[in-house]
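Below is a filled-in request sheet from our internal design queue. Each sheet records the structural input a requester submitted and the sequence that came back. We keep these sheets so that new team members can see what a complete request looks like end to end.

REQUESTER: design group, bay 2
PRIORITY: normal
MODE: inverse folding
CHAIN LENGTH: 220
BACKBONE (tokenized):
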């Protein structure tokens, strides 16, 4: 095994999967072909060739276009394609994780980003997703499915919107692209121990759907 140490270095990686059309959402896995992921770190970057692993420490950051993931430490795993080229396939973010795009922000203690599938799993005592005026939090984990434009919050999940609080064991947030290509929250599906709370009301149900634009909650 050969290990190289660098200080405040920038590394560029291409991805192993085909890329889709550029959009103003979280798209580290599905950005443009001509926008590789750029990784920087304050304390240095360790390259483990035999393990196909790179470790970036100290305010580590991976950026693609206007989307980025920051953490105390980033572990970048790559695979070789049939031509022998190395392609970044997974990012593990450890410690004070912040994932941002022009319209969304996710926070947690640890994140695993499968770049081949476009799936980010955030874990921690409190994980959160901010999209516009909407905030979704959970006590266990939050999954973001980049290609499906969907997020799933698990365990004591809460969604806040204009003074309305939606609580459930599990919340599923669905997004859409507006006319400017920006990702916006469309509706939230709630499952198990559902509760809707406003300034004057508190309603319990087994499941429900909250339409963000209309402000109407349909409960069962």
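RETURNED SEQUENCE:
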């Amino acid at each position: 095994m050969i290990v190289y140490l660098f200080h405040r270095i920038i590394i560029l990686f291409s991805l192993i999967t085909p890329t889709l059309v550029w959009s103003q959402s979280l798209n580290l896995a599905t950005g443009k072909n001509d926008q590789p992921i750029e990784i920087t770190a304050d304390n240095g970057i360790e390259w483990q060739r035999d393990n196909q692993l790179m470790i970036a420490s100290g305010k580590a950051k991976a950026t693609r276009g206007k989307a980025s993931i920051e953490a105390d430490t980033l572990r970048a795993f790559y695979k070789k394609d049939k031509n022998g080229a190395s392609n970044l396939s997974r990012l593990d973010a450890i410690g004070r994780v912040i994932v941002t795009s022009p319209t969304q922000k996710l926070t947690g203690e640890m994140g695993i980003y499968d770049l081949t599938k476009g799936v980010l799993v955030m874990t921690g005592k409190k994980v959160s997703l901010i999209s516009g005026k909407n905030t979704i939090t959970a006590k266990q984990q939050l999954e973001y499915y980049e290609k499906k434009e969907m997020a799933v919050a698990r365990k004591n999940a809460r969604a806040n919107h204009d003074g309305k609080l939606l609580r459930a064991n599990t919340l599923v947030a669905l997004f859409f692209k507006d006319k400017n290509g920006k990702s916006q929250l469309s509706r939230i599906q709630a499952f198990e121990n559902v509760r809707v709370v406003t300034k004057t009301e508190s309603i319990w149900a087994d499941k429900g759907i909250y339409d963000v634009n209309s402000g109407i909650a349909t409960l069962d």
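SHEET NOTES:
- Residues 27 and 67 are 6 Å apart (CA to CA).
- The radius of gyration is 19 Å.
FILED BY: M.R.
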